[in-house]
Hints:
Elements: H1 6-13, H2 27-38, E1 41-42, H3 54-65, H4 78-92, E2 102-106, H5 107-119, E3 125-130, H6 134-142, E4 146-153, E5 158-159, H7 161-167, E6 172-178, H8 190-202, E7 206-210, E8 236-241, E9 253-257, H9 260-270, H10 281-289, H11 293-317, E10 320-321, E11 329-333, H12 342-353, E12 355-356, E13 358-359, H13 366-371, E14 375-379, H14 384-395
Parallel strand pairs: 1-12, 3-4, 3-6, 6-7, 7-8
Antiparallel strand pairs: 2-9, 4-5, 8-9, 10-11, 11-14, 13-14
Amino acid sequence: MTAPAPWERAARGAMLLDGAGRAAPTVFAEMSALAARTGAINLGQGFPDEDGPRVVLDAAHAALDAGLNQYPPGRGRPELLEAVAEHQRRFYGIELDPRREVLVTAGATEALAATVLALVDDGDEVVTLEPFYDAYGAVIGLAGGVHRTVPMRGAEFAVDHAELRAAFSDRTALVIVNDPHNPTGTVLDAATRQLVVDLARRHDAVLVTDEVYEHLLFDGAAHVPLSTLPGAAERTLSVSSGGKTFSTTGWKIGWLTGPEHLVSKVMTVKQYLTFVNGSVFQPAIAVGLGLPDEWFAGLAAGLQRKRDVLADGLAAAGFSVAPSRGGYFVVADAAPLGFSDAADLCRRLPELAGVVGVPVSAFCHEEAAVEHASRIRFAFCKRTEVLERAARQLAALRV
């Protein structure tokens, strides 16, 4: 049996170092390097290959020309703080004080890292769903926390409520909920959302919601922030970013909203991470958040069409394709093709089909990785012609 790659050991054990004490590369780094080396279509890492709206890009140029090139205020530029607060009111009816209840961060990843480092002490337990975005396990480990996970089961990645209840204890300090969910594309149902809130209240835990795919929903699904549920607002920190919505992942402009006392604790840590960031990009994302409703609807509709192109290609190739109701990704099971080890298949896929994906096992600890061993996550946030070419190549897959 082939020894696991460093990123496999890191993901499954929430470790940051490989066996030789070196920093372990992420699965995204390895698979993107594989795509570059082989010339394969990179459907592994979740970044678009098209620029965002022209008005947003122009706003960044204007900010640069206006000389906004020095440190912005610690909490963020006023126009972005106000735009985030207005976005939450406009889409979800959430009322926020932009000066006290909003914090701009270096992407959603920094918001999550600063939150965990601020609110988790040695031995505190943090609950997430599993599979989970790999940064969760890493920052929980950095904070000295104990990572408790709730498995997502079956072809539709369902959450069993008994297993959800069992993950909580009086040592639960934090619950991180990613909805829409990466890597599975799942959108939580109302009963599961409410149970998460009820359990957080029962165990006096803080809720942290990773909502970066909030505008990327398909098939009539609607985003419901946990903070809008009864009893949740006073204990919820909501995290999002402009990178996914406006195809500006390299700008790293994220934000966090919630009760002032919690936001202030996170800012105390954030100022020692990046201090501040993205001065010229903050006004541009503020412009994006003010785009009309039809623009956001068109964004989701366009991505749904792209999802269908890729999902149809995967199905034609013989994969079993799971439903994707939100986000950038579709999960395909290679077991019908005779593959039980998706990590091995992902390393061979550039040769077999000229396409790169990411094994879902890389988003799991060791026990859960077994259940998802034959599944691969593919990104569909690419130009339609690229997806059509990938679909043709996958449909002609020879194994």
